[in-house]
Amino acid sequence: MRIVSGQFKGRRITAPKKLPVRPTTDMAKEALFNILNNQYYLDDISVLDLFAGTGNISYEFASRGTENILSVDQDHGCIKFINETAASFEMDIQTIKSDVFKFLERSKQQHTIIFADPPYDFSVEDFTKIPDLIFANNLLETDGLLIVEHSKYTDLSGISNYSHSKSYGGNTFSFFENTTSDEEE
């Protein structure tokens, strides 16, 4: 995998083979960041990377100027790899080793973009828990975006706050929006 754009464009990252991960493809990642670049000033946002794995998405945000990044994964090896890689690139990426669902239940911090890349073999019920917990706990800023990566064979369009999906090869990104304003709360 490589960093697609920004300060570290072209840098290759090689994760240990023993990590339980499936990194987002460079093609899908590039397409996703083209969308995000048109909606946000990436140096001005807060990002939460759930099921962070290798940290692939976190590095891409950091390379593009995002300074407020929190990566969450339950695998010790993944967290160690993210910390080592971020340190070698001098990226300020915070990490938390935790089960994502437990983290979402107790977290109180809001983010502009929340990216979740759970295992593709999750049931629709497990996928549904992600936006349910995020919106129930008000973890997404107004006009924020939740992006869930999943297989093209999984349909998340029936979940609350669903906006749309984009597919790139076998990868699909489903977008969920927080459209409530502060006045409505």
From TrEMBL:
UniProt record, GO biological process: rRNA methylation
SUPFAM superfamilies xref list: S-adenosyl-L-methionine-dependent methyltransferases
Alphabetically ordered keywords of this record: Methyltransferase, Transferase
Pfam families in alphabetical order: Cons_hypoth95
GO molecular function: methyltransferase activity; nucleic acid binding
Cited InterPro entries: DNA_methylase_N6_adenine_CS, RNA_MeTrfase_RsmD, SAM-dependent_MTases_sf
Protein name stated in the entry: 16S rRNA (Guanine(966)-N(2))-methyltransferase RsmD
Species name: Olleya namhaensis
Organism phylogeny: Bacteria, Pseudomonadati, Bacteroidota, Flavobacteriia, Flavobacteriales
